[in-house]
Amino acid sequence: MAFSWIRSQAASALPILGIALALANWNAKPAAAWAWTAAIAMFLVMVAVRQGFQFAFRRSSKVTQYMKHGLGDTDSDFRQDADVVKAGLARTLATVNNGVVFGALMMIIPLAMTLAHAYGLVDDPTGGRRASMIICGAYLVLMGNAMPRALPPVTSKPRLDALIQAFHRRAGWTWVLCGLAFLTASLALPIKTAGPVSMALVGAAMIATVVQLLRLARQTRQHAPGLN
Amino acid sequence: MNDVFKALSDPTRRRVLQLLREQPMSAGELSDHFAVSKPTMSAHFAVLQQAGLIDAQKSGRTIIYRLVMSVLEEALLGFAQTFGWGLESKRTTRVNQSKVARRPVKGEA
Fold first, then answer.
1. Nearest in space to B87 (alpha carbons), one of B5, B6, B9, B4
2. pTM for the full model?
3. ipTM score of the complex?
């Protein structure tokens, strides 16, 4: 509960902070006005997307409330459906908030580092890029970590469920290891080398996931031909 | 996270997780692998479910359990298995099991 509250607050505050940082950078380096305009536009898109989803969530909450209470106690199935719809909407909003927080952080840290460099507070001009790469690596680790939990509902075919579960587990490990390697490369290697190395790591993880997916498709056809 | 450590500290629960790593199973199929009473197994399932390591889905009259462990939790499971966590809690589990066995089952009295 506390985590979702913090995430929600961060999702509303970070884009505003980002806009403020972009404006401060514009003031410090007016020559790169197009870059700051693009950054502000990105933050405005984040705010708009989040507000849009929140508006939809509030409206849907009213509908589900009507579904639950407006009809009285006569239809318990309908009340259960309302709960399922509400839980689904809350999950979607949480995903949007996660995306906004990570997207905003990936832009805010380089903006803050650039501003600090412009005012002579930081010596390393590549600090911003390195910081955004570290956040990107952390995001890959978190995404991979959560992957084995995101399973579809159980089917009537236990073998198929086992195959899907194994795929999610392997893909999760692949992305966690890729994220950790990405983080290490961003921290330890010179920035010129870290860029291509991290891209190669992401490419390798993508290829590994596609291969695992193809294997899953082949095994699914073998074990459950009636499903296709 | 405390619930996860508590769940992983027991060897029976770790074995349940290892079995579920292979494929989702019903409560009966899982219980067949252990020489403990059904109420004890239900208690283990409840602890695992509370820790968010397994997920229960009703399919007709049976409950299907499946693994919903994150990569970090799976790494912790491997670590616990390798270094034999919960040797102390094994004794506690045995005491709990005997308590459960002593308790009269509904309908039998």
1. B9
2. 0.69
3. 0.73
